[in-house]
Design brief:
Length: 388
Amino acid sequence: MKETTKILHSIPVDELTGSISTPIHQTSTFVQIEPGVHKGYDYARSNSPTRKVLEDLIAKLENGTNGYAFASGLAAIDAVVKLLSTGDEIIAVDDIYGGAFRLFTHVYQKFGITVKYVDATNAENVAANISSKTKLIWIESPTNPTLKISDIEEISKIANANKILLCVDNTFASPAAQKPIELGADIVIHSATKYLAGHSDLIAGLVITKTEELGAKIKFIQNASGGILAPFDSWLVIRGIETLPLRIKQHSDNAQKIAEFLQTQDLIKNVYYPGLPSHTNHHIAKKQQKYFGGVISFDLKIDEKDYAIEFVKNTKYFKLAESLGGVKSLICLPCEMTHKSIPFEKRYEAGVTDSLIRLSVGLEDVDDLIQDLKSALNTIKNKLLINS
Ligand SMILES: *Cc1c(COP(=O)(O)O)cnc(C)c1O
């Protein structure tokens, strides 16, 4: 069975009614036959039938044994960190998602969990930083916003050899494009807010494990900490996943064309997109990803914030907003939005210049999107003329 068929047909038809759409079990509790005897469900924090359909579906999609759904991507990340104990160390990719950085550094450090941030685009940097305290390696690939690529298979070999867990945040690629567990990862997490739900209409997170044993630990934490996803939002994520392969293919086709267009523009300095042969780790992206995804970043030759602001204010279809992965295109200026809290020098080191612009390429017709970017570039040209 091919993947798209597998996705659609691993969502079960409701046994009781034949409903082809998963029923939303909007209930907190389940009536018991005798004390402790029930139909597999007792209290909806512990187990919920609608959430269970999503959890089984994402486990299949990522080729893991178990899946768990949380109220946000960060709640999913939080559940994975809770596998650790005081004195343990995390090695994390240096341009990690800002929210994960905040959680690791400003919440867990005070409980005695330390974090080392390394440039994981070269797997040797990960190996060189391992100590006897290292218990978790945390990778994102591609990263946000400069789309850096790390070799998941190489890093998983290092993790396995040292008996360290490897967790991959697979939000940017999605399982339609990349399957970290097949590449050797132990755990995958998602902000399902992005491509999995795909319509910019909810916040959700997922954890998928490679083994039943790890799954049982995450399940325990999910129930103990309680950051679960509600039935209706679980249903929306299931519905989003039904069209995931189709959407990722189109997001990626559109993004490839836009990245190639941006590369030909005089005003633009760097274009960051894993699908471009000019991308530093294009060969690794090609090896581990089926599609290159819908996110592109680029910066301007005139590295002045005013010009970048002019650009992002003048697109019509690319709406100015944080987040990504929805059917409608978004544009964002990381230095003023997602990456504002990072000190100037650290930000520049990571390539997040004052003129770096991030696009989440949606499913509009690509010709309209390119036209939109052309006219925004023209507003910069005009501004340059006026100022010259
Ligand atoms: C958005 C995002 C998160 C956080 O997810 P939320 O659903 O917003 O809590 C984590 N990792 C990556 C890569 C993200 O883009």
